[in-house]
Amino acid sequence: MTREQAPSLADVARLAQARLPRDLWDYVAGGSGAETTLAANRAALEEVSMLPRVLTGTRAPDPATRLLGSAAAAPFAVAPMAYQRLLHPDGELATAEAAAAAGVPFVVSTLSSVPVEQIARTGATTWFQLYWLRPPGLVESLVARAEDAGCEALVVTVDVPVMGRRLRDVRNSFALPDDVVAAHLADGAASRAHEPVPGESAIAAHTAATFAPGLGWADIARLRASTSLPLVLKGILDPRDALLAEESGVDAVVVSNHGGRQFDGAAPSIAALPAVADALAGRVAVYLDSGIRTGTDILRALACGAEGVLVGRPVLHGLAVDGARGVGHVLSLLAEELRDAMTLAGCADVAAVRALSTVRTVRTR
Predict the structure, then answer these.
(1) CB 168 within 8 Å of CB 27
(2) What is the dihedral sign for C-alpha 185, 191, 194, 198?
(3) Binding site for FMN: residue ranges?
(4) In the chain, what are the domains?
(5) Which among 1, 208, 223, 364 is least surrounded, fewest beta carbons within 10 Å?
């Protein structure tokens, strides 16, 4: 994939859609329910306008920062995403390799199709994402594996008590091929993800059998007491939950509606971000996830109170088109767009971006 073929992330997405079977594209692109939250994420981001600063003398902005204490070449990380070998034979290894080359963290999913130990050997800065699981002792085992592999943080996804009803997958009776597995799980329910049933999502059936729906604040407190790794909660939208997260001793929260794939009707992440950031007032790091598609979107998030963002679907698009090179292209485009946007906004560094003022503009469609 060349810059001429794909000068923007939207172009990468079009190439990926043309390459992938329809049911697989729907799995990547789809949301839950009527996909109102999925659409609202983009609409709300586009309503955030910034007031650029002028005469700042900015020539070569520096987007480098620290995320959870680790150096990052830019204020973004690769979001946790399951089963990446669906999109390319190298799967998560390719994505992690590209993240390492770009100098940004890679978040390993519980449902990764490659084990964390192999991913860590790519040299990427890795964080490990946890779903709360039913099999006794499995969460503790995964935490130990993440620690032993050298992961630098734990990211607990808190917005999946059950999987959202993803109608595209239901209509397509979507199931995993036999050669793509959840590499961290060896439970008896794993086969359900590979058994297509008309009018059902096999992945949803596997999730229902494997995930524990009763995750509560006491579980977070126990996890906090059991590990010295930085602890992040992903899926916070209400400032009241952000304050409870702070009381539980977490190091960061990710303001996220799961990319519109969980509660259809949840607020757009960017709309919820300012209130969460205000409530935490810098005492706990705040990141944003859901809908990021351009370097300007990263500026929007930082100006609204985030310290960084997680990038999801565009990475999968790049992976589908050209493996590690495709992911590298996506991450390079984001970094280039970010530097251009910083220059045009008069921002020499990330701190200056976070000091930008914003206004909301309702766009007609």
Answers:
(1) yes
(2) negative
(3) 80-82, 109, 129, 157, 234, 256, 258, 289-293, 312-313
(4) 14-47+66-337 (3.20.20.70)
(5) 364
